[in-house]
Amino acid sequence: MADVRSLRKVGHNVAVTSQASAALFARAQAVTPGGVNSPVRAFNAVGGTPRFVRSAVGAWLTDVDGNEYVDLICSWGPMLLGHAHPEVQAAVQAAVARGTSYGTPTEPEVELAEAIVERTPVDQVRFVSSGTEATMSAIRLARGVTGRDVVVKFAGCYHGHVDSLLASAGSGLATFAVPGTPGVPESSTALTLVLPYNDRSAVKQVFAEHGDRIACLVTEAAPGNMGVVPPEPGFNAFLAETCRAHGALFVSDEVMTGFRVTRTGQWGLDGAVEGWRPDLMTFGKVMGGGFPAAAFGGRADVMAQLAPGGPVYQAGTLSGNPVATTAGLATLRLATDEVYRHLDQTAETIKIAVAEALTAAGVPHVVQSTGTMFSVFFTEKAVLDFAGASDQDTAAYAAFFHAMLDRGVYLPPSAYEAWFVSAAHDDRAVDTVLAALPEAARAAAATRGA
Ligand code: PLP
Questions:
Q1: Whether this model's pTM surpasses 0.70
Q2: Complete DSSP assignment for 385-447
Q3: 63, 253, 385, 393: which is the annotated catalytic residue?
Q4: Closest Cα to atom 5, ligand 1: which residue?
Q5: Which domains does the chain have, with CATH numbers?
Q6: Is position 381 annotated as part of the catalytic site?
Q7: Which of 2, 87, 136, 237 is 20 to 30 A from residue 35's alpha carbon, by CA?
């Protein structure tokens, strides 16, 4: 069944039809809650029919109706090299031919762990299958090592759907959190403190009041899950030092930023320069090369507390899966300095063009970035925290999103997400984005007059 958008003529005179996507969406809704396996894919924040993608090559997605889109989400981060990279594919095909899972240690796991240890400040890593599992396990380890229970996090930072982290701030700064979703018991968030991001005085206050109970502070190394909100200069160093002073562990979540914003992640932009390192880190996305692989890692003495050597239990049937680790290893090996330079330049070109188009159309906006990762806020002021990110004109974003989609550009279907480019975003892909921007900016402007 086609929706109203399905046969509309668009600016560059191509009829975008979403009939096949709409039909699949109807079937999906019958057998899957909301028709999707992760909520943001449903387009609820922007309306319209989610596009069902059939294939992807390089910078391009092709949907089941045959429409092509320049991909600016890159699977929400993992596809650093672009889709279906021939060398990654060849490595994966060879791995599949050797069998897909053995439940034993394998060589690719060792090689991928070595590659991660080489690029980051962690001494050791343990592989898991999702970013959620990585942060969940890091928190368990932090609690096990410190013998403390309380976890501090920031509003607007997402660390996966871990019960204790799906928490909203309580009634006061130093009061414990309340569940952010039905299904999370109050007892799970009763040990979580939620603070405003970039707010040093809030951090000082909760450590002053609860410091001896805090097992760890977990933060996105640079938040990307409320749009990109870089840490203010020195903020991560301040967090590391505050944790150290109170005997708590500093857990830096680089699931999104790791091997993405720079070769060494966000840590390469601050910790490596300033001379500090997190006690624990989490990784995912890029290091899985498009497969379900993630990891947590950290100081050798902390990681030594994990089973089988130590008392803190953690395990996984498919952890370190040989196909996934092969894909991740191939991706990291191909992610050279030249790749990061290309990503930087591409991101810069798109950021400048978006700002110019929105300015020309009179749409208030702020473009923020860290390394190669960026996002556009439809708001007036620089965004420092979740309250600032929430102050957006989401209707204007929805109009902008659909105008871009109609012109062959797939943006994140929510105003609260990072935009991602890849090594495969060439001139043709970038030109398609640039050509779409002026009309999309005018579409956003039109909602403001409405
Ligand atoms: N941590 C961060 C910073 C993330 O961005 C995400 C997912 O987007 C996660 C953790 C959870 O990862 P996953 O979706 O693989 O469970």
A1: yes
A2: SHHHHHS--HHHHHHHHHHHHHTTEE--SSTTS-B---TT--HHHHHHHHHHHHHHHHHHHHH
A3: 253
A4: 256
A5: 19-80+336-447 (3.90.1150.10), 86-334 (3.40.640.10)
A6: no
A7: 136
